[in-house]
Amino acid sequence: MKPKQLIALQKRFFESGQSRDISFIKKKLKALKTAVINNEEAIYDAAYKDFKKPKFEVYGSEIGLLISQIDKILKNLHRWSKTKSVKASKLNFPSRDYIRREPFGSVLVISPWNYPFLLALSPAISAIAAGNTVVLKPSEMTPNTADLIKKILTEVFDNDHFCVELGGVEETTLLLKQRWDYIFFTGSVAVGKIIAKAAAIHLTPVTLELGGKNPCIVDVTTDLKLTAKRLVWGKFFNAGQTCIAPDYILAEKSIKTELIKLLKLEIKKAYGKNPKLSPYYPRIVNAANYKRLIGMLSDVDIVHGGDKNKGDNYLCPTIVDNPSLDSKLMEGEIFGPILPILSYNSESDIETIVKSYEKPLALYVFSKNKTFYNAMLKRFRFGGAVINDSMIHFGNQNLPFGGVGESGIGVCNGRFGYNTFTHQKSIVIKSNWLDAPLRYAPYKNKLKLLKKAFRWLG
Ligand code: NAD
C-alpha cells in the first residue's frame, strides 16, 4: 500500500475512537505478548541469521525487556490514562481544573538494527498503549528480524491500527513526506537531523534517540577486578554495537597498566582464547560497518585483539592503548568491539577530554569515592549515568531513557514512553454561580484591586 493511503486508513481508524479504547488496547497487547512468546525460537533464529547474536543476549536485551514492558503497561494503563485533577487557581474561582492525556494520532516509528526486535517494538507499543495508530519502519540491515516483526504484527494487528513498512532510505524518505502526528526515531545523529528536518515541514513533534561517545571514567579507589569484568560485559555485549556501550575508558594514570591486564583476562574468561569460536560473541552487522571499524584500527596501538575475518564480519574484542584524540578511533562514536584506553592525571584532564565531544548518551564512573563521582555527575551533561557499572540503567522502566543535545531529544521507557506519546490537555470547568466583576471592562479604579487580588490569590 502507498504511504498516503496507509496514513489515510490509519487516520480513519483513529477517528473511530477504537485505538483509544483501553480494553481493546489491552486485548491487543496481550495477544502480542502471546505471539512473542510463541515466536521465541523464530526470534532467536532471525537474530542469529542477522549477525550471529547469541540466544542469551537476545532474551536478556530484547525479548525479556519487551515482555516486562508489556506487563507493566497492562498493569498500569488504567492509572496512567486517568484524567488528573489539579489544584485550581484562586484567581479563577470557582473552577475545577484537570489534565487529560490524549494520544497524538498517527505515529511513525523508525528503528535501528542493533537491537532490531526491542528498539522497533518498544516505542511502538508505548505509542499503541497511549491510543495512537502506528506505522513501524524497522531497519533494513537486519532483514530477518524485520520480516519476522512484520509477520508477528500482521497476525495480531490490523493494518489500520499498527503495521510494518519494510525498506531502506528510499521507503523511509517516502514515509517522511507524509503528515504524521508524531515521529519517534532511533538511530544515528546524521539521520536524526534528516528526520528533524522532515518533521519540521509539518511541525510534527519528534523524539530522537541518538548516539554519541560515552566516556567511562575509572579512578584509583575502584575495585579494579570487578571494574574490568563489568567493562568487558558492557563493551563487548552485542559486539559493542550498543548506543550506551562504554565508548572509551579514561583511567587514572597509575592504574591503567593493571586495568589493561585485567581486561585481557576478563575477555579470555568470557569468550575463550579465540572469540571467533565462541557461541557467545556476535558479528559486525554488515560489510560496511566492518570496513568502518577496521578503518579505525589503521593508526593506533593495539594491545589486545585486532584479529579479524572479512568473510563473516568478525572483529575480535580489541583494546587500543592511548590513541591520539585526532585518530579515526577517537573522532566519533565507535559502535563496535574496540575499546580505547586513555589516562588522566587530574580532574581537569578528564574535563578537557569529555568536553571535547558532544554531550554523550551515557556516562560511567567506576569509583568508591562519593565526592569524586558526584563531582563527575555534576560537571558533565549526558543522557543517563551509572556508577560502578554500565548500560544497566536502560533496564529500569522507572527511569526515563534518552539523550541530551546531539545524543537525543525526548525520552522513552515505562510510563515515560506512555507520556511521550500523549499530549496533555489542560481543562478548566468554570462554574456560573459566581461571576466576580473585577476582570471586566471598564477598568476604571480597578487596578489597585487587581494588584491586591494577585497578592492574595495568585
Ligand atoms: P541509522 O541512522 O543509519 O538508521 C536508523 C534508521 O533510519 C533505519 O531504519 C534506516 O532505514 C533509516 N535511515 C537510514 N538512512 C536514512 C535516510 N537517509 N533517510 C531516512 N531514513 C534513513 O542508524 P543505525 O545504523 O541503524 O543504528 C546505529 C545508530 O543508532 C548509532 O549511532 C547508535 O548510537 C544509535 N542508537 C541509538 C539508540 C538510543 O536509544 N539512543 C539505540 C540504538 C541505536
Strands ordered across the widest β-sheet: 10-13-14-9-8-15-16
With helices defined by DSSP (H or I, 4 residues minimum), what is the helix count?
A: 15
**Main beta sheet: strand number and arrangement?**
7 strands, mixed
**From the helix content, strand content and strand pairing, which structural class follows?**
alpha/beta
CATH class of the largest domain: Alpha Beta
CATH architecture of the largest domain: 3-Layer(aba) Sandwich
Number of domains: 2
Number of strands: 18
Q: Within the CATH hierarchy, at the fold level, what is the topology of the largest domain?
A: Aldehyde Dehydrogenase, Chain A, domain 1
What does this structure look like?
The structure is a single chain. By secondary structure, the protein is of the alpha/beta class. It has 2 domains: 3-210 and 407-423, Aldehyde Dehydrogenase, Chain A, domain 1 (3-Layer(aba) Sandwich), CATH 3.40.605.10; 215-402, Aldehyde Dehydrogenase, Chain A, domain 2. Helices cover 42% and strands 18% of the residues. The strands form 4 sheets. The chain has a 7-stranded mixed β-sheet, sandwiched between helices. A 6-stranded mixed β-sheet has the order 5-4-3-6-7-17, sandwiched between helices. The protein has a 3-stranded antiparallel β-sheet with strand order 1-2-18. Helix 6 links the parallel strand 4 and strand 5. Helix 3 crosses helix 4 (55-81) and helix 4 (55-81) packs across helix 14 (414-420). The termini are far apart.
